[in-house]
Amino acid sequence: MPSTLRLTFVLIGLLTSASLLNGEQPRAPRAAAVRSLATETSAVPFADGERICFLGDSITAGGYYQTILSNYYLTRFPDRRYRFINAGRSGDTAGGALKRLQEDVIAKHPTSVCIMFGMNDVYRHTYVDNPTEDEKRKRQFALDRFRENITKLVDRLKRDANNPNLVFLTPTPFDQTVILDREN
Q1: Residue 168: which residues within 8 A CB-CB, separation 6 or more?
Q2: Percent of the chain residues past pLDDT 90, beyond the cut
Q3: pTM confidence score
Q4: Distance between CA atoms of residues 73 and 96, nearest Å
Q5: Residue range 151-165: average pLDDT?
Q6: What is the phi/psi pair of residue 167, to 5°?
Q7: In what order do the strands lie in the sheet with 112-116?
Q8: Cα 89 off chain centre by
């Protein structure tokens, strides 16, 4: 199965629950209590009237996974109203999103925000076989900065966007062992 289809199924599973798939009515959205980036939470299906904002980099800007999710909700619940907002920007990072958060997300008054960053945040070029100490140091710096920026994003969304439900999506897999015929 292609990786994009696997990702799609994971995303659909993440944003829907067993009760929704069994035909039960979705619960009202609830604010996620984000204690750490590693906190496990269960997804709550989107309720009627929700404004769902997708915040991320080029993977989000491309609109592929949002289209699948919006089509899922719009075809299964045609009497409900949802507003899906794409706030993805190619080449963006979590730090870059902080600069545009007011205009691209907060001003849209979302009830839920789906966040996916990471690919542009982690210095992919340092993930090589036998990394040098300098590459290891750069990796750690990038990861620390990513964690700091995501935490700032969460804090601002909770404070300035009326505490929307937050859904965290992991970046797509990156295989540091692949042998390519050109630089990626």
Answers
A1: 37, 114, 115, 116
A2: 59
A3: 0.72
A4: 30
A5: 96
A6: -120, 120
A7: 83-88, 51-56, 112-116, 165-168
A8: 12
Structural contact between residues 88 and 60, judged by C-beta atoms closer than 8 angstroms: yes
Q: How far is CA 10 from CA 53, 55, 86, 120, 163, in A?
A: 18, 18, 19, 21, 25
Going by pLDDT thresholds of 50, 70 and 90, the confidence category of residue 29 is very low
Task: Map the chain to HEC letters.
Answer: CCHHHHHHHHHHHHHCCHHHHCCCCCCCCCCCCCCCCCCCCCCCCCCCCCEEEEEECHHHHCCHHHHHHHHHHHHHCCCCCCEEEEEECCCCCHHHHHHHHHHHCHHHCCCEEEEECCCCCCCHHHCCCCCCHHHHHHHHHHHHHHHHHHHHHHHHHHHHCCCCEEEECCCCCCCCCCCCCCCC
CA distance 50 to 47: 6
d(CA 174, CA 33): 29
> Who contacts 61 (Cβ-Cβ below 8 Å, separation ≥6)?
86, 88, 89, 90, 92
